[in-house]
Q: What sequence folds into this?
């Protein structure tokens, strides 16, 4: 079976990448192929990378509060490119109150502070196409 | 301090005691995850020379504190980090905090401001007013400080890549209030190297960035002597996942690079070193943190004296602000955070900080409400006035454990700095990815320890309950971005645009040359050129930094 390919992405201007790097390593240690975008990616750049790298999962990390705009935008652009099958998950400082709206637009799961990397890996394994 | 015969005797009785304890371990095993030794005795501190290594407060090497009487004379400055949405809303929060007994301001800027984009820039979408206040021009800065006399409050600004521009705006605000630059006091963070490795709000490549920093050093030493021209960020290095030793070592390595750049530009060490300040974290391990602050003071004093030949005691003193660690706060059971913050703040006080910001209990969820911001300030006031922790200078000195930890942190940080020197200094070590890798390794280890249960996080991997999250956190109105964009449009239609264009042209020419840019930046902000326009010109001339995405 082919390895699951994950794009870990930092949308927006947030510079906090400790979580994104830890998740990247943990998913790699869990046997996945991980591409990390680095900081300051526009939704357009993330979707382009997802296309180029032929990933199964896009994992968005954001701690600035801009998730309410940026996460739905990434999902929207993926669909426009015909990449609606890609599993999109998110993590960061995200209030529970914001989660239902994100899920409604197609973000499959949101992992908040305290989530274990093992839980993230398991979710991906169970839900990636 | 004991003599050799006494130490030898102690060594024998300690060995016998340890043997006895070991026998009992089968029945009463120790917890496996404890890093410290079982017991600290005079044997652990026998190598310490009191006069040379610890000394007296206010005297070299400042292990016990930088002032002779510390908090007996004047309490630390209580300086809560605040800023969100618009200048008007942040201005109201500042006045509230000052009214509650806060003694200094600390401005949080939103990400577009920190990265030099106006609120109407496409990359600013979704980010305006979120992690701090949106400042697009001098008009916003005037609104931010409306009714706050800038000669009577010290203002710290968490701003790095465009620090020179925001400082120019603050100087202009002072002028409007009738306050001369020499009467302003405060701090700009102005520490770009840690942005490349830990915080991410860089704009320009290292070389022009270092020039902007050196320009502010030179300008302030001449015109704003009370201004702290840099606040070297140890905090962010730790928050990005490094250890206590790495926090000290990597921040010191960055500071050494700034000092070397300033000296290469012809500045004399004792002319600018007194205006270097610092920001450290207060993490969870109470004693390690206290030892870290003491070790950092001693090591910095030695570096300044021995490496840079600084004679002025003010150049040798490590003056620092502490912000309690945000990364250790949990979204689960947020009331627990109030307790964590209390002992983190206690560590900062026992460690002799000059100013302190305590996180609010709800920061793992979102921005603090007014009530939780007040609780965070009250935590400091309780420590200051009720706990007794501020009543004597450096109360943990002489603890075998704390002195031994102080010694070991100083030694290990020194070894790291030597390694970085061998690579060619912090800029070279950053370019090679050495510092980033060391930090990422530590961050990963820390997370592994939580997931394997080696490290307990109450409410996260033990003592877990299932409860819905409280909904009373502060939400920034999503319309703030549109309102800021409208304000910029209105500003552009009412200002003298020919004057703005001329100022930006002059800035472009001077940026391409070698003159100190501060006077030109002050002139330019006064035309109400926007931050995005000014940084746009500097981007044209200096280029932009592109980071490697290395995991």
A:
């Amino acid at each position: 079976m082919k390895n699951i390919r994950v794009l870990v992405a930092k949308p927006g201007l947030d510079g906090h990448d400790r979580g994104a790097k830890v998740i990247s390593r943990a998913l790699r240690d869990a046997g996945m192929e991980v591409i990390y975008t680095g900081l300051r990616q526009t939704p357009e750049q993330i979707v382009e990378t997802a296309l180029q790298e032929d990933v199964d999962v896009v994992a968005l990390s954001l701690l600035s509060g801009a998730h309410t705009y940026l996460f739905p935008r990434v999902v929207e652009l993926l669909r426009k490119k015909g990449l609606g099958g890609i599993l999109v998950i998110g993590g960061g400082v995200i209030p529970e109150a914001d989660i239902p709206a994100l899920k409604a637009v197609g973000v499959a799961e949101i992992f908040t502070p305290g989530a274990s990397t093992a839980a993230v890996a398991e979710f991906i394994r169970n839900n990636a196409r | 301090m004991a003599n050799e015969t006494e130490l030898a005797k102690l060594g024998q009785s300690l060995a016998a005691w340890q043997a006895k304890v070991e026998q009992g371990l089968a029945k009463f095993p120790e917890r496996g995850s404890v890093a410290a030794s079982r017991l600290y005795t005079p044997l652990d501190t026998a190598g310490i020379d009191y006069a040379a290594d610890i000394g007296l407060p206010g005297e070299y090497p400042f292990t016990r504190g930088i002032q002779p009487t510390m908090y007996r004379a004047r309490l630390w400055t209580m300086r809560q980090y605040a800023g969100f949405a618009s200048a008007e809303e942040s201005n109201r929060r500042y006045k509230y905090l000052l009214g509650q007994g806060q003694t200094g301001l600390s401005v949080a800027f939103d990400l577009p401001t920190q990265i030099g984009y106006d609120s109407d820039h496409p990359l600013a979408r979704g980010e305006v007013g979120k992690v701090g206040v949106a400042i697009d021009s001098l008009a916003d800065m005037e609104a931010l400080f409306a009714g706050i006399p800038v000669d009577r409050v010290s203002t710290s600004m968490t701003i790095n890549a465009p620090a020179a521009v925001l400082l120019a705006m603050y100087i202009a605000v002072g002028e409007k209030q009738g306050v001369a630059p020499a009467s302003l006091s405060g701090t700009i963070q102005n520490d770009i190297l840690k942005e490349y490795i830990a915080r991410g709000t860089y704009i320009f490549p290292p070389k022009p960035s270092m020039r902007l920093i050196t320009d502010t050093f030179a300008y302030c030493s001449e015109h704003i002597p009370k201004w702290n021209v840099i606040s070297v960020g140890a905090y962010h290095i730790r928050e990005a996942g490094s250890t206590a030793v790495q926090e000290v070592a990597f921040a010191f390595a960055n500071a050494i690079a700034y000092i070397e750049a300033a000296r290469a530009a012809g500045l004399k060490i004792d002319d600018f070193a007194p205006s270097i300040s610092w920001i450290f974290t207060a993490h969870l391990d109470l004693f390690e943190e206290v030892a870290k602050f003491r070790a950092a003071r001693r090591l910095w004093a030695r570096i300044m004296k021995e490496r840079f030949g600084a004679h002025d005691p003010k150049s040798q003193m490590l003056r620092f602000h502490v912000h309690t660690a945000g990364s250790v706060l949990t979204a689960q059971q947020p009331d627990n955070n109030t307790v964590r913050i209390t002992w983190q703040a206690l560590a900062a006080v026992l460690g002799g900080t000059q100013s302190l910001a305590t996180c609010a209990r709800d920061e793992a969820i979102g921005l603090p409400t007014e009530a939780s911001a007040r609780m965070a300030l009250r935590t400091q006031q309780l420590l200051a006035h009720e706990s007794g922790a501020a009543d004597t200078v450096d109360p943990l000195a002489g603890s075998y454990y704390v002195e031994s930890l102080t010694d070991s942190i100083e030694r290990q940080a020194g070894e790291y700095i030597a390694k970085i020197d061998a690579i060619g200094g912090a800029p070279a070590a950053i370019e090679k990815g050495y510092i980033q890798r060391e930090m990422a390794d530590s961050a990963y280890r820390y997370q592994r320890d939580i997931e394997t249960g080696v490290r307990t996080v109450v409410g996260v991997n033990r003592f877990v309950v299932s409860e819905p999250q409280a909904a009373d956190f502060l939400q920034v109105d999503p319309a703030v971005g549109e309102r800021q964009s409208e304000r910029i449009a209105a500003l552009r239609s009412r200002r003298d645009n020919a004057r703005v264009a001329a100022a930006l042209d002059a800035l472009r020419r001077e940026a391409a040359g070698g003159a100190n840019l501060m006077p030109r930046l002050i002139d330019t902000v006064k035309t109400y050129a926007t931050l995005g326009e000014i940084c746009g010109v500097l981007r044209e001339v200096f280029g932009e930094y592109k980071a490697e995405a290395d995991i």
Notes: Chain B touches chain A through 52 residues (CB under 8 Å). The first strand of chain B starts at residue 77 and ends at 78. DSSP finds 22 helices and ten strands in chain B. Chain B has two domains: 75-422, 494-542.
